[in-house]
Amino acid sequence: MLPFSRIAIIGLGLIGSSIARGIRDAMPTVHITGHDAGADVRGTARRIDLCDDVTDLAATAVVDADLIILCVPVGAMADVAASIAADLPADAVVSDVGSSKASVLAALEAALPGRTIIPAHPVAGTEKSGPEAGFA
Fold this sequence. Notes:
33% of the residues lie in helices and 18% in strands. It contains 5 helices and 6 strands. The chain has helices at 14-26, 39-47, 58-62, 77-84, 102-111, and strands at 6-10, 31-35, 53-55, 67-70, 93-96, 116-118. Helix 4 links the parallel strand 4 and strand 5. Helix 4 packs parallel to helix 5 (102-111). The longest helix is centred in the N-terminal third of the chain and has 13 residues, at 14-26. The relative contact order is 0.23.
């Protein structure tokens, strides 16, 4: 049995798109919902079939998710967390790929009190960006 059946990825640039591809490769039955603040990025993600669903709102992406991975700039973590807080399932796990941990964890804990938060860092990347630059 897989640990998660529905994963939401908020931020579909290089790291978010790479995570989506990795999930597809390793766990093809997991449903992936993605969101990005940029309409052009959402359009690209839809065009390349990056996720099962791509939503226009971050809150919509997390509604049924078991795992939410925040792949947004460190400075946007608090605002994104606040925007999804009301729609998070009670038992969902939240993780992030921010490059710094103390400030991100503090921001997520403040915006999502009582939630399970697992700070992470992908230790990955290239000089390219955007959803088409990702790789599993």
